[in-house]
UniProtKB/TrEMBL annotation:
Residues 21-469 form the Major facilitator superfamily (MFS) profile domain. Keywords: Antibiotic resistance, Cell membrane, Membrane, Transmembrane, Transmembrane helix, Transport. It holds the Pfam family MFS_1. The keyword Membrane applies. The chain crosses the membrane at residues 57-75, 87-104, 116-135, 147-169, 175-195, 207-227, 239-256, 276-297, 303-324, 336-359, 365-384, 405-426, 446-465. InterPro entries: MFS, MFS_dom, MFS_trans_sf, Sugar_transporter_CS. The keyword Lipid biosynthesis does not apply. Its main location: membrane. Coiled coil: none annotated. The lineage of its organism: Bacteria, Bacillati, Actinomycetota, Actinomycetes, Kitasatosporales. It comes from Streptomyces albidochromogenes. It is a multi-pass membrane protein. This is MFS transporter. It is found in: Cell membrane.
Length: 495
């Protein structure tokens, strides 16, 4: 069901209310990304204050990502059924309350639990917000421009969160948990006024709670198994049985989706090569970056002795580059197409990771760190908007919530799984508690894993460069037999 807002034609300017709606949605997505990255710089301070190990520490990041990824599919479905505005605003309110809770807890398990709750609320705001955009702006240049601004705000939030975290951690890591609360409250108040009403749609069935339960359980078990495997042994009975149980849960989830009348994922949507490449590209791109950020923060603060603020400033060039490109990526995609833009972006990402492999115990900011950050910032600016455009193009309005949830699930599950893999690799390296050189040597295999994951995403993207261009629908009018009226007829046309 489309929004009540009037969508402007290409030559028209967006109305103030349309801009207001977009800005509220951008603020929510900015917060989602901000919350993932802000905790990164604060991790060493949290570990020292709450006496947490490296393997436990990564669950503060993974707890949010898993809560986010675990119910994104249900969140997208709820947006389609209950009304996008209603779902978005309620979840945003829960996000504000959970942010307040996270800044007040005083133990590792409670902090992880509060992060998980925030992730759950973000699982409903993200697909609802993206769905509001894709059903408000017409497919083509208008939607591409809106999505470019929207997703660039997410990438900017992820980058700028590091800077804000550096500033706040100098006072206390708790401020990094509390900051999103007032911002979310302001966005909620503005959203009540700006976001147009959308009706419920109960015509397509229920909510597929069995699918949500089995899908979430499969992802939680998979990440837990990867994290615990170094301690238990990769070939141990416990690890192998856990992997088997995760596979069984995933199989049950697929069977449920095939048989239920109201699936979280209509599996037919994955028959599209562009859709599959968008989902796998999102998982590998974000997964590699989350692992990279985790390693770089530990390297800068633990080995180089940099403060939280100095670490944040090292990431600043990437954030600035992303922010400056927000209004231009849509036009780039219009001209070259999403496969080419994504391929160029991931190529820059891989080069940035390879360059960072040259790090030593002596800081080399101008020669190594700065070039890497600039390349990674350029990659984020190109890839994030393009992935969203590719995933939502050609999808019916009543399935935009489902596809939006699927894309965000790929992002967050990719982040959780690959972060767990990277953490397991560096833990297996035995550097924790060793000399600085031993710690650095344990980090290098993790950086190699990050690079390989990004390279795999590039290979997946390259398979789409030779695929036929997407067919656009041109609406013609034909007469209806027996009447004097005309009805729309869609005729496929090559781009």
């Amino acid at each position: 069901m489309t929004s009540a807002l009037n969508v402007p034609q290409p030559q028209e300017r967006w109305s103030p209310r349309l801009w207001g709606t977009l800005l509220v949605l951008c603020a929510a997505m900015f917060l989602d990304a901000l919350d993932v990255s802000m905790v990164g710089v604060a991790l060493p301070s949290i570990a020292a204050d709450l006496d947490l190990s490296t393997s436990t520490l990564q669950w503060i990041v993974s707890g949010y990502i898993l809560g986010y990824g675990g119910l994104l599919l249900l969140g997208g479905r709820a947006a389609d059924l209950l009304g996008r505005r209603r779902v978005f605003l309620i979840a945003l309110g829960v996000f504000a309350l959970a942010s307040l809770l996270g800044g007040l807890v005083d133990s590792g398990p409670l902090l992880i639990a509060s992060r998980f709750i925030k992730g759950l609320s973000a699982a409903f705001t993200a697909p609802a917000g993206l769905c509001i955009i894709t059903t408000t702006f017409k497919e083509g240049p208008q939607r591409n421009r809106a999505l470019a601004i929207y997703t660039t705000c997410a990438a900017t939030g992820f980058s700028m969160g590091l800077v804000l975290s550096g500033l706040l951690t100098e006072l206390s890591w708790r401020w990094t948990m509390l900051l999103p609360a007032p911002i979310a409250l302001l966005a909620l108040i503005a959203g009540i006024r700006m976001i147009p009403h959308s009706d419920r749609d109960d015509s397509t069935g229920g909510y597929d709670l069995p699918g949500a339960v089995t899908g979430t359980a499969a992802m939680l078990l998979l990440v837990f198994t990867v994290v615990e495997a170094p301690e238990a042994g990769w070939a141990s009975a416990r690890t192998l049985l856990s992997f088997l149980a995760a596979a069984v849960l995933l199989t049950v989830f697929v069977l449920i989706e095939r048989r239920t009348a109201s699936p979280l994922i209509r599996l037919g949507v994955l028959r599209s090569g562009n859709q599959i490449r968008a989902q796998l590209g999102a998982a590998t791109f974000f997964g590699s970056y989350v692992g990279f950020q985790f390693l770089v923060v530990q390297y800068m603060q633990s080995l180089l002795g940099w403060s939280a603020l100095e670490t944040a400033l090292a990431f600043l060039p990437a954030g600035v580059l992303v922010a400056l490109s927000s209004t231009r990526i849509g036009a780039v995609v219009d001209r070259f197409g999403t496969p080419r833009v994504i391929a160029v972006g991931i190529t820059l990402l891989v080069i940035g990771y390879v360059l960072f492999l040259r790090i030593t115990l002596t800081p080399q900011y101008a020669a190594v760190i700065l070039p890497s950050m600039l390349l990674i910032g350029a990659a984020c600016a190109l890839v994030f908007p393009s992935l969203n455009i590719q995933a939502t193009t050609g999808v019916a309005d009543n399935e935009q919530g489902m596809v939006s949830g699927l894309l965000n699930t790929s992002l967050q599950v990719g982040g959780a799984v690959f972060l767990a893999v990277v953490t397991a690799v560096i833990t297996a390296g035995g550097g924790e508690g060793g000399t600085p050189q031993e710690v650095l040597d344990s980090f290098r295999p993790g950086l190699v894993v990050v690079t390989v994951v990004a390279a795999a995403g590039l290979l997946i993207t390259l398979t789409g460069l030779r695929a036929p261009r997407a067919r656009r629908s041109v609406v013609l009018m034909k007469s209806v037999p027996g009447t004097t009226e005309s009805a729309p007829e869609r005729v496929g046309a090559r781009d």
